[in-house]
């Protein structure tokens, strides 16, 4: 429902009050008596906005406009990628939402095509000649980019804890399997917790279990550093944290791999040698065959000559 809003002077509300009538009132505050009519009354121009009638809204009937301390809301920041007016060139290189290159079009035509497709016109390369723009759903694009960034940050900061359990009397094969698994986990950036459980009378072999964990840590080497350990409880463990400096360095090739590569190269050389020998034998056979054919031809000629 509409209402009527008007602004009136605040001084008109006190038009009927005079100095004498105002100061004829006795004030008992702090035992002071104000009865001097000659004292000036300070005047202040204050505007009052009154609203009569109307509905809706809460908030009182009067709004003082003389002292407005609220700041104005800030304008929404426009993303530079959407500021097409910043392009000085009259033509742009346009890419559609399906990654198809549409070629050179005028800037106004690109804006019109984006509006017709109900998409945003985003600047990809403002410094190119001409600038490269693309039609896309920019809000969806930004959401996906932010999501990828968060996922990457989680991958870089997250460090999982992998547990490897073994007995104090583990055999060499199982020990090697766990050692390789720990190396892989550490290279992937995860922590490794190696546990040796002592059950019942196995507690008598605690020293063997401690030596096993120390041996395991020694063979891991500089690939990890010790974060914590516990050799007092029945479940002895040590937690290893990957050494980032060592992970960044390329790992040296294992001797077995080098041997396999060398043996493969030797095998190829041997095969090539055998092929060369076979080719030599074939050439020798061909030479012998040619010599035999020549001898046979000479014999035939001699027989023809001696015939009556």
From TrEMBL:
Q: Which domain of life is it from?
A: Eukaryota
Q: Which Pfam families match?
A: IF3_C, IF3_N
Q: Pinpoint the Translation initiation factor 3 N-terminal domain residues.
A: 86-152
Q: Where is the Translation initiation factor 3 C-terminal domain?
A: 160-243
A GO cellular component entry from the record: chloroplast
Family matches, as PROSITE patterns: IF3
Q: Which family does it belong to?
A: Belongs to the IF-3 family.
Subunit-level organization: Monomer.
* Function statement: Chloroplast translation initiation factor that is essential for the coordination of leaf and chloroplast development. IF-3 binds to the 30S ribosomal subunit and shifts the equilibrium between 70S ribosomes and their 50S and 30S subunits in favor of the free subunits, thus enhancing the availability of 30S subunits on which protein synthesis initiation begins.
Protein name in the entry = Translation initiation factor IF-3
The protein's organism comes out as Arabis alpina (Alpine rock-cress)
């Amino acid at each position: 429902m509409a209402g009527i809003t008007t602004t009136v002077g605040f001084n008109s509300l006190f038009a009927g009050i005079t100095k004498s009538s105002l100061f004829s009132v006795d004030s008992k505050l702090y035992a002071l008596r104000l009865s001097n009519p000659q004292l000036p009354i300070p005047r202040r121009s204050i505007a009052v906005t009154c609203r009569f009638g109307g509905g809706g809204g809460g908030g009182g009937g009067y709004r003082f406009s003389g002292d407005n301390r609220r700041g104005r809301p800030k304008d929404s920041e426009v993303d530079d990628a959407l500021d097409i007016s910043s392009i000085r060139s009259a033509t742009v290189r346009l890419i559609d939402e399906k990654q198809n290159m549409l070629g050179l079009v005028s800037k106004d035509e690109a804006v019109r095509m984006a509006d017709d497709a109900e998409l945003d016109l985003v600047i990809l390369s403002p410094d190119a000649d001409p600038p490269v723009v693309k039609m896309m759903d920019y809000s969806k694009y930004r959401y996906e980019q932010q999501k990828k960034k968060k996922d990457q940050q989680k991958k870089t900061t997250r460090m999982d804890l992998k547990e490897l359990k073994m007995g104090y009397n583990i055999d060499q094969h199982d020990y090697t399997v766990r050692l390789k698994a720990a190396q892989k986990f550490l290279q992937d950036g995860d922590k490794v917790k190696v546990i040796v459980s002592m059950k019942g009378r196995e507690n008598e072999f605690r020293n063997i279990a401690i030596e096993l964990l120390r041996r395991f840590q020694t063979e891991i080497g500089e690939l990890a550093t010790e974060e914590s350990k516990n050799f007092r409880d029945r479940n002895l463990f040590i937690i290893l944290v990957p050494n980032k400096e060592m992970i960044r360095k390329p790992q040296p090739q294992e001797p077995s791999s080098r041997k396999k590569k060398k043996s493969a190269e030797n095998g190829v050389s041997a095969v090539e040698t055998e092929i060369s020998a076979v080719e030599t034998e074939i050439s020798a056979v061909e030479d012998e065959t040619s010599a035999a054919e020549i001898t046979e031809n000479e014999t035939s000629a001699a027989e023809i000559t001696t015939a009556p």
